[in-house]
Amino acid sequence: MIGQMAIRALAAAALAGFVSGCQSAYDAPMSAEQVAYQPAGPDGRSGQRLGADGYPLLGAYPNAAAPQIDDASVTAQDQRAKTLAARRKGGVSTRGYEAEIARLKRLKRQQAQDVETALARKPERSAVSVGTGAKPSRSPEDVLREIQAGE
């Protein structure tokens, strides 16, 4: 009976040692720090308290929201954003769009007419046929001048 009591006493002492953790008798007792709240500053910072190292102190939360901007500033910023978005999107007026479409249609008609004209032209009799050994009717310089003249 005395043996069982001694074993229980030793088990309780060991359990108390484990529960107490690693804090020694010479350390200050561990307790929760008091949280000091401060209002948010007018510069827009959050008001979070910082430690000596510059990092925020955990648990030291601000007690007020940062000051909000006024409606006029919001409207001005929104207008600037819309202007930038329209400029980036390449907003084109309807009149400018229709003029560009008409210009491209004219160009298409002109190119089609140029192709039809070139295809309708009859080949010259003096043109060289492949494999005949006849001399060309024009010199390379004449061909180059014709190309440069746009004919």
What percentage of amino acids are in beta strands?
A: under 5%
- Mean of pLDDT: 75
Note the gap between the termini: 126 Å
Q: Poorly predicted ranges (pLDDT <50, ≥5 residues)?
A: none
The quaternary state of the protein chains shown equals single chain
Number of helices: 4
- Report the sheet with the most strands, covering strand number, pairing sense and barrel closure: none
Which of globular, elongated, flat, extended, rod-shaped describes the shape? elongated
Characterization of this structure:
It comes from Jiella pacifica. This is Beta-barrel assembly machine subunit BamF. By secondary structure, the chain is mainly alpha-helical. The chain has a domain of 29 residues. The chain is built from four helices and no strands. The radius of gyration is 46 Å and the shape is elongated. It starts with a helix and ends with a helix. The mean pLDDT is 75.
